[in-house]
Amino acid sequence: MTTFEERALARPPVRLLRSPGVYRPQSDTWLLAEAASAAGIPPGAKVLDICTGTGALAITASMLGARDVVALDVSRRAVVSARLNAWLNGQRIRALRGSMLALPSASSFDVVLANPPYVPCPPRTVTRGRRRAWNAGPDGRALLDPICRSMPQLVKPGGFLLMVHSALSDTDKSLWQLRDGGLAAEVVSRNTIPFGPVMWSRTEFLERTGLIEPGQRHEDLVVIRADRP
Q: For a 10 Å CB count at each end of the chain, is N or C smaller?
């Protein structure tokens, strides 16, 4: 059986280098890449990749036919990695350092891809350096909430969002927020994976707060698609 990474890389192959401290593409990246391949990027589309990391998803979108791809990340190292990886793969993207919240109000896109930080963490957890790639507050929604709220402005009419996050971070809340903003939202893909090192280190906190059942050591990743009519 092939892995999500192998299937996503097969449509089309992506060569990636990663600077120290930049989020390593893994199950959530490849699940979202597969969803983007299945959804189809409209030829000539303008695409925004939020929290781009190595640029894997931005490069995939470019290979699938996007004309104008903006790859956004708050990490300088991520931006450098994305630019280098775009060059390695012969693709043209605009890798920019900054927050989605700092985009001009007139910005809008045919497709938005998002793999933001979504791992719940205890209050006052240090969130600097590479930890910014996964720590997302006690409920895992520090970035999910602003992303969901911004989609009615960032997605063009007829366009769509594809976003991946853990079901521990409240899938229903993401769907509700997107629908409240006038988008038609649903879960289009799901994958169950064992806990990685970060989740293993937080099992006591996750059990204590009721985010996982006692003894649970796996999580569901979900890809949400939200279409703007």
A: N
